[in-house]
Design goal:
single chain, alpha/beta, six-stranded mixed sheet, 21 strands, about 25% helix, ABC transporter substrate-binding protein, SBP_5
Length: about 600
């Protein structure tokens, strides 16, 4: 997923106490006067939302507008894998667990959502049981049951030919998951036998191996309930049934989504959501520069949450007054370039190492917006993920590349030159600029890479995430940005390094890396109960991956967000890549 820095797991008592804390929305850095001040966040100061809630308010009404430069992979909670959609989807889709709204790493606190408490493990962590809250209802007033959660997991993980965009952890780890064909092919009422629903409020997951971080897994929107009778497969996105505080009033594919209050949402069943705005509008395919202008005018929030464009960044940093309205924080992400091990000659480690040594990472950092947008990276794990250990296998003077060593590795690979293609997302100017900087570095050592641009919304479904496509198009190098699916080494590494995660479409293991030792270490780690021992295994995986040179770490991503004036309850959360938590944002505007 594109986002999640980390924190160690908190206790259930601390999490529950945090949910009930009124300070979440009343003790912000800057209090909004509901009657007088539309600019309550103006004087909050730089990075204020990374420390506390800015412009805290309980004012209801108005319209909150989000804008995105492309289209998301999907609004379907069971068929998405972007951090901003995990964030936004909680407004209309409640998973079993979720992350508490809170500043910085406080936002990584895992709390119950549909479930009344955290999961109860048994059988050494191979069985997990959850009880649903009482009184849960869909937008039409019908009851939400454990069977709907079971079905949601089945459709999102076991029908990859229909819904391929989200992760497939449940398919990988549930007992019998490798044999179950999914609800669209399986017409029996039983479904997957390793998910049991003994009554309407209990759901039990039986795993084939111990999974000590399972509470994080069920925080994915894939556990948000879906009534089977209302499911339309890939077309469910056109008529999503809400379990959250908002429901869809309209949905125009590729253009706009409009959400309004769900009248059958009951605050008594939900200690997290506040239902402040009357309406939420999501506008798609808005020019990136236009988004910046709208944000600065207080008319919108950048849904993607990747930060302002280069020209806007220079404008905001030009004075202390303008900088006071920004938030700059680590996004818990790694910006990197995957080296496709299935595209020759990158099936040879020496050719991959030639790429590693060739790249001037400072030029890449500059292209991305300078140090304020990320520190030069040398490991797979970012510094704020457990298991990180400082290391630089392909060190060069000033991080500017080592042409001599690159050519040495190229010679060891049996090559004097290589011709390949590099992919990047067409609607991400900074990613294109970074890819261009890489192309210039590679050219100096005899590697001729041509840029191929593809849209974000289909980057994984149709292009970079389709192994057959990348091999046919000779795409040996793939631009990527990655954040943990949940705040742990496993949540960061599994979907980009484990061979079992490689898929025919929607693939995020872009290197197609399938190392039996790494696969085994990942399995061992997730079954290890002791945190320190588990984190040591993540460090080993990082080192092995770098030795195999299957991806090039470029920068440890940082985001520079502009706070839109008049918007309330703004808090930058580590749980969603430094983005503002979208759960309770409101507005003082009419």
């Amino acid at each position: 997923m594109e986002g999640n820095p980390t924190i160690m797991r908190r206790s259930a008592l601390a999490a529950i106490a945090a949910i009930g804390s009124a300070s979440l929305l009343v003790a912000g850095c800057s209090k909004a006067d509901d009657n007088k001040n539309d600019n309550g966040n103006k004087s909050a100061g730089a990075n204020a939302a990374t420390k506390d809630v800015v412009n805290a308010s309980t004012k209801k009404g108005g319209t909150v507008t989000y804008e995105l430069s492309d289209v998301p992979d999907s609004f379907d909670p069971g068929n998405t894998y972007y951090a901003y959609m995990y964030n936004l989807s909680r407004l209309y889709a409640r998973p079993l667990m979720t992350f508490q709204p809170g500043a910085g790493e406080k936002g990584n606190t895992l709390v119950p959502d549909l479930a009344e408490s955290k999961g109860v493990p048994s059988d050494g962590g191979k069985t997990w049981t959850y009880k649903l809250r009482s009184g849960l209802k869909y937008q039409d007033g019908s009851a939400i049951t454990s069977k709907d959660v079971k079905y949601a997991v089945e459709r999102s993980n076991f029908a990859r030919d229909v819904l391929s965009l989200g992760p497939n952890y449940f398919q990988q780890f549930l007992a019998g998951g490798d044999k179950y064909k999914g609800p669209y092919k399986d017409k029996s009422a039983k479904g997957l036998s390793s998910i049991e629903t003994p009554d309407d409020t209990t759901i039990v997951f039986h795993l084939k191996t111990a999974f000590q971080e399972f509470d994080y897994l069920v925080a994915a929107p894939q556990t948000a309930p879906v009534p089977q009778a209302k499911d339309k497969g890939v077309d469910y996105v056109k008529s999503i049934v809400s379990s959250g505080s908002y429901k869809f009033q309209s949905y125009s594919e590729g253009k706009q989504a409009v959400l309004v209050r769900n009248e059958n949402w009951d605050a008594k069943t939900d200690p997290l959501r506040k239902q402040y705005p009357e309406k939420i509008v999501v506008n798609l395919k808005v020019n990136a520069e236009t988004i910046d202008k709208d944000v600065l005018a207080g008319d919108a929030i950048d849904l993607g949450g990747t930060g302002v464009q280069a020209a806007t960044q220079a404008q905001l940093l030009s004075s202390a007054e303008k900088k006071a309205g920004t938030d700059n924080t680590y996004g818990g992400r790694l910006v990197y370039m995957a080296i496709n091990t299935k595209v020759k000659p990158f099936d040879k480690v020496e050719c991959r190492k030639a790429v590693q040594f060739a790249i001037d990472k400072v030029s890449v950092q500059t292209a991305e917006g300078g140090p304020i947008r990320g520190d030069v990276a040398s490991t797979v794990l970012p510094p704020d993920i457990p298991g990180y250990e400082k290391s630089d296998v392909y060190a060069s003077a000033g991080n500017k590349g080592d042409e001599a060593k690159a050519k040495e590795q190229l010679k060891a690979c049996g090559k004097t030159s290589i011709k390949t293609n590099i992919s990047a997302r067409s609607d991400r100017p900074q990613e294109i600029d970074a890819a261009t900087a890489i192309i210039n570095s590679l050219k100096k050592v005899g590697i001729d890479a041509s840029l191929k641009q593809y849209p974000s919304g289909k980057y994984f479904t149709d292009y970079a995430g389709v192994p057959k496509f990348t091999e046919k198009q000779n795409i040996g190098l793939i631009m990527m940005q990655w954040g943990a699916d949940w705040p742990s080494g496993y949540g960061f590494l599994q979907q980009i390094l484990n061979g079992s995660a490689i898929g025919e479409s929607g693939n995020t293991n872009l290197s197609q890396y399938d190392n039996k030792d790494v696969n085994a270490l990942l399995e061992k780690a997730i079954g290890t109960q002791d945190d320190a021992a588990r984190n040591t295994l993540y460090t080993q995986i990082d080192k092995q991956t770098m030795d195999d040179a299957v991806l090039v770490p470029l920068t440890y991503f940082k985001v520079l967000l502009a706070r839109p004036q008049g918007y309330t309850n703004l808090v930058s959360t580590a749980a969603f890549s430094g983005q503002y938590d979208y759960l309770n944002i409101g507005t003082t505007k009419k």
